[in-house]
Amino acid sequence: VLRKSKIIRRFALGDVKLPIAQSLIHAVGISLIVSIQASVWSQTPIEIHPTNDPRLNVEVIARGMSIPTTIEFSPDGRLFFLDRETGIVRVFNRNWVLQTEPVITVPIAYHRNEAGAMSLAIAPISEGSETRIYVSHVTAEDTWCISRFVEDGTGRGDQLEKVMDFPDCVVGELESTRWHNINSLHFGPNIVSDLPEQLLYISFGDGGGIKPTGDLSIGDPAQDPATWCGGLFWIDPENPPKLGEGETQNICVGLRNSYDFCFHPKSQTIYMTENGFNSYDEVNQIRVGGNHGWPVVVGKREDPRFVDPVFESVWVTAPTGICVYPGGSLPDEYRNRVLFCEWGQGEIRVLDLEDPSDPKTKVTRNYYLLGHPDIFNFKPINGWGFIDMTPGPDGAIYLSAAPGAGPGVTGAILRIVRSPDVREPFVGIRAY
Question: Which helix (H) or strand (E) holds 26?
Fold first, then answer.
């Protein structure tokens, strides 16, 4: 039996590598997973898992609920989540009690593959005690749309209304149409004009179809800013555009299957995860008016026609949730760093930026906070893949996860927290 005390940690600047033996301990769970007997809905962690940074742990704080595709905190500190397969929106109160009744159920017509109810965004300014919440979902007409409802501050939703349809993203009879459609919604600072101060941003995949790269694909929807496909778009939800105005709302083109994005508070730059075709998963630094390559090129190609990603992975990891840590209870060096999680590998990575205030800054280093470069398809926490991540009002980073998808599969909510016992310095686990 391997013992934790026999493992030698090696942290050195440059080629930093965690010995395989320690990762094997992660895999078998010997001496490193502490199970705590508690309710499945509790502020007290149900499980505690170590990370590669000895100062940080990942706590499982809720499990057994329907799969939380999107998690987001309201302005008053409650955590809402959305179930892709049912369209149910649920909420934890600030004492981490899961409300028994759904906040609301958003109607969906199809919920397989990458269709159903995919994303949820909460307006940053509440009107009195009411909160406006926006949801992307597939309607009875097999068309993606964004709807919104009002939440009254006590966990009850009402006044569901459609904001906008997207007929370029149709979930039809063909299997290929059920992939790469609306992925993520986020409110963020207005980077295209002066007013309003906040806009609703929407990431779209390339409209479906599993296809390789090549110059003959220039006519693909992902290369056409007039279609609501393969790019990042913005709308003012109080004055939504007309259906034919996709080009005027376009931020960038050339995206294949961009799962999530976030804004850096120092530069207002958008960082976005991108799932490649059998290789070259990416993190993109979005440029207004930029072309990020798909399906003509993937990865870093130094082609002046396209914006190269700031991070690329030659093998498939399926990057999903992404956030910038604003600072709080975690060690201060994590402030302004970009973190993203993976569905395929169940890993968490960190990107160091040369100058966080520079919208075109370079990534100087990336490393594994959870996971290991020498072990593929590892999924170190209960075999779960991660779906979403967001900073919490308490200074922790929250994640949603699940072992898979489909009927009967349940999910979990976790958080990255400071370990109360360890204060030693940490450099990182090499990424390449």
Answer: helix 20-28
